[in-house]
Amino acid sequence: MNDVIKISGIEAKGFHGVLEKERKRGQKFLVDVEFHLSLRNLNDQLNKTVNYAEVAQVVKNLITGEPRQLIESLAEDIAKQILKEFKKIKKVKVIVHKPNAPIPLKFKDVTVEIERSR
Q1: N or C: which end of the chain has fewer CB within 10 A?
Q2: How far is Cα 92 from Cα 50, in angstroms, rounded to an integer?
């Protein structure tokens, strides 16, 4: 199966982090998701695929929801929830970006990337 839908840059404010100031002030998180499913014989019918707007909302709800210390845990929870709610998805890749991570050096981004499947 090589059919893939990708959503890049789902952005929301979350309160994730090990440091107290991260959990108190919050910061921007971005999430990319890529999900694998069969797109054969769609006949232009939404009910034969996955509504990517609904997937994006699941991601946003988890970004803005219960704080986690680790973005690794956030990525895992996003993957689990997507597989739980969308039975047509066989495999999901989640990339969590934390561009304002508390690193005392100049850097562009910190990401965690995971893949989970049924």
Answers
A1: C
A2: 13
- Alpha-carbon distances, residue 54 vs 1, 92, 99 (angstroms): 22, 15, 25
Global confidence as pTM: 0.95
* Residues with catalytic function: 98
* pLDDT for residue 30: 98
Q: For the CA atoms of the chain, what is the radius of gyration?
A: 15
> What is the C-alpha to C-alpha distance for residues 32 and 63, in angstroms, rounded to an integer?
12
In our burial notation (b when 16+ CB lie closer than 10 A, e otherwise), range 103-116 reads eeeeeeeebbeeeb
Per residue in 67-100, is it b (16+ CB within 10 Å) or e — as a string? ebeebeebbbebbebbbeebeebebbbbbbbbee
Q: Is the pLDDT of residue 1 over 70?
A: no
The CATH code of domain 4-117 reads 3.30.1130.10
